[in-house]
Design brief:
The protein is an alpha/beta fold. 36% of the residues lie in helices and 23% in strands. Strands 1-2-3-4-5-6-7 form a 7-stranded mixed sheet.
């Protein structure tokens, strides 16, 4: 279950204990936009019901990226437009079954077979409205800007900016409460993506996991990501050993090692 946090005029975050996940809702006068959908159809259904506690407006959905915890709850929102980067659609089509298998096993080993069972029966829905660079959605008296800031947490991150509320939904390009995840990341490009997030000038930034943050937090995390990016380049050039990089990194060893094993430049 989750709880609502209002972060702006008709802009809310649904906070979950599960994976410290943050989902979003942006309401206009004619429609609303759901930002990410949760990790399975059951969680998506709970989220959809919670949205109806706040508004009866017709909804559309935007996916910030293709990881299961953000994208597997789409079916609960019915036959409505789903926005995402083209790479998100491609990645979901290619990896959904592997993600399902890996996380079902994770939850069974964690003694949570009910979550594993929900994952195993979840219908994965591919997005149909694709945004390669940017798009504007008119919710009625309110514009929401969708933008791909370049490779970072994945190669297909998409953010949602609500200019009149000063709120930016950043997906997992920003993480509060834990280090950023590098499993599918492009560490050397990630600081540049965060620079483009900062350029929006939002006063409130909603991470994919953790509590909402401000621009100062974003600036600090950008500096940490830049340290990791330089360590990755230095190791790739043979100037620094992996052991030295692990010792100098602002993040724990396992996170840093994952970053060191990722491509130095985006593909």
């Amino acid at each position: 279950m989750g709880r609502w946090v209002e972060v702006g005029d008709r802009v809310w975050v649904r906070r979950h204990d599960e994976l410290d996940l943050s989902l979003g809702l942006i309401a206009g006068e004619r429609a609303c936009l759901v930002v990410d959908t949760g990790g399975d159809e059951g969680q998506g259904t709970e989220f959809a019901s919670a949205v109806r506690e706040l508004t009866g407006l017709p909804w559309e959905v935007v996916l910030t990226h293709a990881h299961f915890d953000h994208a597997f709850g789409v079916a609960a929102f019915g036959d409505r437009p789903v926005w995402a980067h083209p790479g998100c659609r491609d990645d979901l089509a290619a990896t959904a079954e592997a993600q399902r298998a890996a996380w079902s096993e994770h939850y069974r080993k964690a003694g949570r077979p009910e979550v594993a069972a929900r994952l195993e029966t979840t219908r994965v829905v591919l997005p149909g409205r694709l945004v390669a660079t940017s798009a504007e959605l008119d919710l009625g008296g309110r514009l929401v800007r969708l933008a791909h800031p370049g490779p970072g947490h994945t190669g297909h991150d998409l953010v949602a900016h609500v200019p009149d509320a000063g709120v930016l939904f950043a997906g997992d390009l920003v993480e509060q409460g834990a280090p950023p995840s590098f499993d599918d990341a492009y560490p050397s490009a990630w600081p540049g993506a965060v620079d483009r997030l900062l350029a929006f000038g939002a006063t409130t930034v909603v991470p994919g996991h953790g509590d909402p943050v401000d621009a100062a937090f974003l600036t600090r995390q950008r500096a940490e990501l830049a340290e990791v990016a330089e360590l990755c380049r230095s190791v790739a050039r043979g100037e620094t050993t992996a052991a030295e990089a692990l010792a100098r990194s602002p993040y724990p060893e396992d996170f840093t090692m994952t970053a060191l094993n990722r491509p130095v430049t985006p593909v």
